[in-house]
Amino acid sequence: MRRAVSPVTLIAVFCVAEIFGMTGAVTFPALLPTFIDTWALSNTDAGWINGIYYAGYLFAVPVLVSLTDRMAPRRVFFLCMAITVLANLGFALAAEGLWTAMAFRLVAGIGLAGTYMPGLKLLGDHLRHLAADKDQSRAVAFYTSSFGIGTSLSYFLAGEVAAALDWRWAFAIAAAGPVVAAALMAAILPREDPPHAQVPDTHLLDFRPVLRCRAVMAYVLAYTAHNFELFAFRSWIVAYLVFAAATGPDATIWSATAIAALVNLLGLPASVLGNEVARRIGRHRTITIVMLTSALLAGSIGFAAGAPFTLVVVLCLIYGVTITADSSAITAGVVNAAPAGYRGATMAVHSCIGFMGAFAGPLAFGVVLDLSSAGATGGETIQSWGLTFLFSGLVMVALGAVALAVRGRERA
User: Which of 96, 120, 273, 370 supports an S-S bond with 378, CB 3.0-4.6 Å?
Assistant: First the structure.
């Protein structure tokens, strides 16, 4: 017999589980200055370790998310929560430098691939069973926005634990989060997932029905641009704040990881509000406004590193809002546009192509940071930070413009 659960309770538990499942998501970028010093990493090396996490995600997500159209999504979800635990523990116990760090972060990215979008698919399946006539875009908005809360918790936890103990303990304690997440999901989920409304009649990795859908692919391209900028910022914000604090005329009692946590925490209301605005004025218009505003801020934030640190923090907070405000609007759009029977495959394409941006963003940021400092080490001049952030904003405009051109004037 199925256990009764309300849609509101279901959404709340899924969001909380997502948050706890991500306690180790940004432990490495949160402690990036420590690793650069301890392991003598270049910015390009650090970019590879940051980016490889999302490479693991994009390599695994086509298979793992597509499987949710053909088998119970919970199986994928619980297996990958276990993988996430092992990846964080492995990093804590055995990471010794560039190559071992890359290996464990790659595995952690695979864990994310089997929990984030499969979790959304699992939530959507149960909500359709409980309230098939209701608009799910708000549930999508809360779920995707919880990604930012999970990131904030990861930043804060990493900074506090590393300061009290060391970075190995930060990763070890982060491994407990996915255990809590799995326990919450096991307690709340009905005993069986709803049956698939329509099973695809193509093979597992046949994404042609999705790739032929112009509306879906427009959102996918927009998501790629969004991820390039967002994950570059999330991967390098702590290093940037440490540089700005040492360069500017005033000091701060806040730790860089606490500031980064606050910046990412603002992503929840920004993403939810962005989706509400999109429901009223159209996703096309909303995404356009958010992308252009975010790009403008990217063009100025790096050059502000020598300004009073309070101003730098305010700019980061505003940038954190604009960089996430289109997230839910994009994801809700792609879910609604998915071809019948291919929602899981659509999420797989959305995640795989979109997270190419998440992989490329942190890596490209580190490379440009190294290349933009003639006569100095990358990341040690205001000019290098300014040019690198400017580059990130230009990618947002260029790829975002392509997505909007594909989308045309259609509103959704």
Answer: 370
Q: Is the dihedral of CA 50, 57, 21, 327 positive or negative?
A: positive
Q: pTM to 2 decimals?
A: 0.80
Residue 205 is classified by DSSP as T
Q: pLDDT by residue (tens digit) across 113-137?
A: 889 888 888 887 777 766 555 656 6
pLDDT(3) > 60: no
Q: Taking Cα atoms as reference points, which of 100, 101, 38, 49 lies closest to residue 365?
A: 49
Are residues 159 and 255 in contact, defined by beta-carbon separation less than 8 angstroms?
Answer: yes
| Strand, helix or coil for residue 357 | helix
Tokens 């693991």 belong to which residue? 56
CATH class of 7-194+207-407: mainly alpha
13, containing H or E segment: helix 7-21
Please state, in angstroms and as integers, the Cα–Cα distance from residue 366 to each residue in 85, 163, 196, 373, 377, following that order.
28, 25, 43, 12, 12
